[in-house]
Amino acid sequence: MRFSRSLAPLALATTILLSAPAAMAAGGAGPIAPNKAVDSSEYTVVAAYEHIPAAAVNAVITAAQNDAYESLKHEPGTLSVHVVPDPVTTSRLVVAATFKDKHAFEVHEHGWFERGFRAVAALKGASRPVTTIAGTSLTAATGGKEAHEGVDEGGSVFTVVAEFDNVQPQWRDDFIAIAQADGYGSLTGEPGTLGFFFVPDPADPTRFVFLETFTSLDAFVAHKLDTPAQAYLDLVARAGIVGPKFFVTGSDTGFDQPGGYSVPNQRS
H/E element holding 27? Predict the structure, then answer.
């Protein structure tokens, strides 16, 4: 399974292991919602921090929650962030963030909040992040109409990151068109679908990554069975496209382990 790509660290890495709920109970200002100026073609970055020592989890969580909270509060170009504990590998955290554009991501990456978190993560023994995608998402659209992202209130949402490979040139235009229509139908017709980001890999024209957020696991299941997604999966089967492979859990065995729940971004 080809998920791993090492890039410069992405901050905003906050999570909570299912076995460590104390981090969510930290005091302070509580969850903060994503910035509401979400457009339809943002710069999307998805990465994982791995091999976090069990004894360091709570400290890394606290530092990352502070980073995420302050970044969303003070960086207008940081639009949303979802950090997810891998429900299979409890020493691994996944962060999925969207920015107004690549420049906004670079500003964030070199800012005080990310650098502070990065220093704590390194001190506590967390690995450098492995990045599966960093690129500009395509607009969710069909028939000349566009759909914009919703606001998910910054709480615990079900987050899915799916990779598709082997999109051959003769299928690329169809793949993009149907994926954009899937996004439009999901955002406009499925109350449980909160966000839909569809990102071509800038380094590999045969590879695409989806970042999707839902109100719950049940909402994801409903999305998977809905007409837009089924039309998309039909094309995947006909064109010999490989996927979905799920980055949050590292699963490529179907839809049984698609993702996990993010944690609220809160100041400790």
Answer: none
* pLDDT-wise least confident of 6-20, 38-52, 62-76, 205-219: 6-20
Tokens representing 46? 């998805």
- Burial group, residue 212, by CB count within 10 angstroms (0-12, 13-18, 19+): buried
Residues 130 and 28 sit within 8 Å (Cβ to Cβ):
no
Domain boundaries, the chain: 21-135, 140-259
**CA–CA dist 109, 268 (Å, integer):** 21
Strands 193-200 and 208-214: antiparallel
Element (H, E) at 214: strand 208-214
What is the C-alpha to C-alpha distance for residues 160 and 175, in angstroms, rounded to an integer?
19
Q: For residues 66 and 17, give the distance between their C-alpha atoms in angstroms, rounded to a whole number.
A: 17
Q: How far is CA 6 from CA 3, 23, 30, 47, 72, in A?
A: 10, 28, 32, 9, 24
Tens of pLDDT, residues 30-68 = 677 677 555 567 999 999 989 999 999 888 878 877 888
139 secondary structure, DSSP code: P
CB 104 within 8 A of CB 43: yes
Q: Which segments within 8-100 are labelled E, that is strand?
A: 30-31, 43-49, 78-85, 93-99
The token pair at 213 is 């957020």
Same fold, 21-135 and 140-259: yes
What is the spatial order of strands in the sheet that 93-99 belongs to? 78-85, 93-99, 43-49, 130-136
Is the domain covering 21-135 a CATH 3.30.70.100 domain?
yes
3-class secondary structure, 183:
helix
CATH class of the structural domain 140-259: alpha beta
